[in-house]
Every structure is written in C-alpha cells, then in structure tokens.
Amino acid sequence: MISEAFSLGKTPASKPAKSAPKDPRNQQAVGILFFAILPLAFSMLGDPSAANLAICGGLLAVFGISLFGISLGLKGAERYNSQDIARKARFPGRILGSVGMGIGCALTAGLRGSDLGQIAVLAVIATVLSLLAFGIDPLKDKGLETVKDRQVYKTSKLRRRAEAQVAVIGKVVKPLGDAELLPDLRRFEDAVQRMLQAVEDDPERARSLQKYLGVYLDGAAEAATRFVAVYRSTGDVDAHARFGTLIRDLGGAFDRKATEYAAQGRDKMNVQIDVLSESLAREAARG
Question: Does residue 188 share a domain with residue 94?
C-alpha cells in the first residue's frame, strides 16, 4: 500500500554549533586576488587575437578556479571549526587551490620566457605562500576517534535528516487544518520518533533503517508538498484519500519496525543475562 500511495506524485542529539570567530582577512584576500587577475581580462580586450585570447583566457581560468577552490575551502574550514564533531574536508579546496595558484604562476612565467628552473622555483614559492596565507584543509575527522563517537555522529546525522523531513511534511499539511489528516499525521510523527529512539538505543541499526528514515521520508515530504498544492487548488477528494492512506501506511510501517526492534533488543538483553547468569553459576559451583 505504501508503494501505491507514493504514486501520488538516545544517541545524544548533536551539540549545537559553537560560535567560532571568523577570520575575514582570508576571504578578503581572496577577493583582492580576484581583482589582481583582472589585467588578464583587460589584456584580452586590448589584443583580441586568437592566440592572446587563448593564453589569457586559459590563465584567467586557472587562477579563477584556484581562487574559487580556496574560497570554498575557507568556508568549509569555518564550518569545521564551529562544530565539536565534524568530518574532514571532502574537497580540500585550499590545498588544491594553492597548487593551482602555483601552476598558474608557473605558466605565466613560462609564457614570459623564463627557464625551467625559474618556473619550478616560482611554482613552489607561489604554492607555499598561498598555503601559508590561507592554511590547509582539515585532513582528519574531529570528535570521531572511537567507534562509539562514529556511531553517535551517524545516528545524530540520521535524526537531523529525518526530523527535517517530518518538519517539512508538518509545515505544508498542518496549515490545512484538516480534521481527518491531523490525527494521522500526529501518529505518523510519533512512529518516526519511536523508530529514531530504536536507532538511539542501538546505533548499529542505523544502516538497516536508512531506507525508512531516508528514502520513505524523502518521498513522503515530496508527496506532501504536491498533495497540498493539488488539494488547495482543486479540492481533489481522491488526492486527499490517497495521501491519508500514505500517511497511515507509513506510520503503521514505522511503528511495526520500531516494535520489532524493541523486541529484538529485549531478546539480546535476555541472552546476555542468561550467559552471565550461567557463568556466575559455574563459578559458584567451582568455588
């Protein structure tokens, strides 16, 4: 029934981001360097020959892309520094951008007739100066040193994503004030919370629940947005009935899964208690 309806077309919560002082000097320096490469554009206007356009345009692209990468790296570093738990940089923009600046300077020197040694030295100097000016990207995870830390991070991330999608559904549906949908929506929200609690009680379940807390919730949020748009404009009774079915089916599926996981958790607990009790009994018999 869920698939049919879709055709309508205490891991602790993560700590709030702490306020880290920004360093505007680096971003300002990137802006100044953007202005510094503008003469290449003026050179293209002054000599619109094909060769000059190719050379200056190519250099402009190298420097521009490099500075853009550095800017992205600086923004990523600000986010990383403002959080207690953070992943290393997926895109090392400052490092790659600095290397790009070195390549751009080397190409410029080569086009001006410098020898190979001078080109190499200039490339190294430009790269090093850029790295010293802007720093390097975070190369290791922060606050994720242990297995438990990583599980906390994953489950907290899963909770944030799930709650964001539930909030989207509520934001678009609740203003309708529909007496039939609102009770179903509340039961659905409670079922999602129960499933999230099941993940928090046993973080190893996070992977197996990603389909429910990811795919299904993403689809439900999209369906809710489309339903409200259709229902507001047409009052389509069939659309209302099918969306209501979707919410009830999802809530029931989530609730059953949460109940199943709670039962599995009790079974694991009972097995552990039995093993420990038998071990203690054997120790007592030997003692």
Answer: no
CA dist list (Å): 249 to 1, 165, 192, 225, 266: 7, 17, 12, 18, 26
By CB atoms closer than 10 A (0-12, 13-18, 19+), residue 223 is buried
**83 and 210 assigned to the same domain:** no
Determine contact, residues 163/200, Cβ cutoff 8 Å: no
What's the Rg (C-alpha) of the chain?
A: 29
Does the predicted TM-score (pTM) go above 0.70? Answer: no
225 and 177 co-located in one domain: yes
Give 123-127's long-range contacts (Cβ < 8 A, gap of 24+): 126/101, 126/102, 127/98, 127/99, 127/101, 127/102
Q: Give backbone dihedrals phi and psi of 261, rounded to 5 degrees, phi first.
A: -70, -35
Residues 112 and 151 in one domain: no
44-89 pLDDT tens trace = 767 777 887 888 888 888 988 998 999 888 888 888 887 766 777 8
If one counts every other C-beta atom within 10 angstroms of the C-beta of residue 81, the result is 16
Q: Is residue 6 part of a domain?
A: no
Q: Which residues pair with 145 in a beta bridge?
A: none
Q: Are residues 109 and 168 in the same domain?
A: no
Domain boundary among 113, 134, 155: 134
Q: Indicate whether 209 belongs to any domain.
A: yes
- DSSP states of 61-82 as a string? HHHHHHHHHHHHHHHHHHHHHT
Task: Please report which helix (H) or strand (E) contains residue 37, including its range.
Answer: none
Domain that holds residue 61: 24-134
**Which residues have C-beta within 8 Å of that of residue 156, sequence separation ≥ 6?**
11, 12, 13, 14, 85
264 lies in a domain? Answer: yes
Helix (H, G, I), strand (E, B) or coil at 16: coil
86-127 pLDDT, tens digit per residue, is 777 888 889 999 999 999 889 888 887 778 888 899 899 999
